[in-house]
Amino acid sequence: MAKGNVSLSVIRRLPRYHRFLRELSDNGIVRISSGDLSKRMGLTASQIRQDLNCFGGFGQQGYGYNVKDLYDEISKILGLGIPRKTVLIGAGNLGRAVTQHMDFSARGFQLIGMFDTNPSLIGQKIGGVEIYDSSLIGEFCEKHHPAVAILCIPKEAAYELAAVLISHGIKGFWNFSHYDLTIDYDGIAVENVHLGDSLSTLCYRIHELECPNGEQRLNEQPPN
Amino acid sequence: MAKGNVSLSVIRRLPRYHRFLRELSDNGIVRISSGDLSKRMGLTASQIRQDLNCFGGFGQQGYGYNVKDLYDEISKILGLGIPRKTVLIGAGNLGRAVTQHMDFSARGFQLIGMFDTNPSLIGQKIGGVEIYDSSLIGEFCEKHHPAVAILCIPKEAAYELAAVLISHGIKGFWNFSHYDLTIDYDGIAVENVHLGDSLSTLCYRIHELECPNGEQRLNEQPPN
Question: What is the pTM of this model?
Fold first, then answer.
């Protein structure tokens, strides 16, 4: 199992290993060498060995990795498949798209309710999940005890609702808002998705291609 | 202006500085010390000074940073506001949500067309932008010369269309697909948004809160 002091950059690569291994497995590939995996993933073989060694390493000299075993091991490390009741706050365009686009159950997230302040949305169902009035979130949490909240609301609304959600036992946030929960709260798990920041980073990368000393910096871009 | 060898982690923080500075400016704050900015952003003052020094540093001893000047300087560094014709591929739930949710023009991206293979979507308009048949993308590029493509399509479709788009001069990709363009192409700017990987990372972080040696690793999570 995982050793301590694993860097965030290694953790961030694990879901990608997981994706590639899933594909290999789906294609009937039983085992793979770190060299072959590195070509497919655009990483060096030593990088892959280093990454996986952080978690004890699963490769065998001369054999490589057993695809299914490594996939299962990374699933365990990531904590995938552990059932977690989840609510989504903000059933606007983004919230609805996230609901319809993501396979929550494959990772153990059970979406049990969506919340919005827009009367025209309340009562609707998206993928079989009902949209409730945001004012009922506390009551809902007391009754159903969700552990995870997906925030698809503006910063101000996120700031107000985070306090309520945390007071009702929510410990994990998939945060699409620009409110940085980690500044105000400890002991919660937050994964931010700042689409605006990502788009600005793309701007930088395009600009970098065009500007004189860009090449130097481009090399530092890992295939993320 | 920017010096070479700026690490990706610094670059990734720039859009966040930009966001906070915009808020400060909107709230009529003219200048701010690195200490005050660090409290608001959950970074250390020295971290902020280090980051901004990568680009020459803009602070003045005893004065701090001029909010508007620093905001404008970071805008320049990020290449925001430079007009770039942009197409979006895949007008499904995610593509439509991205179109309706993001302020492209604020960063210089001009969304001039959307593309899909679904006949029921072709001809529709989202936010005034028409959805065309994906088979016409090459023709469209020859005529309008977009520089950026937003990929909201599955991996296989992204693999096929990337070749077409790059052959027609697209040099920047905001990539929501799981196809890693950087493995097959050099000299393009790619910013990946892997929502599935992000959700898996949230899984890990929640799991980490629950598992014994989690605390140790949690400390490495920056407010991203």
Answer: 0.87
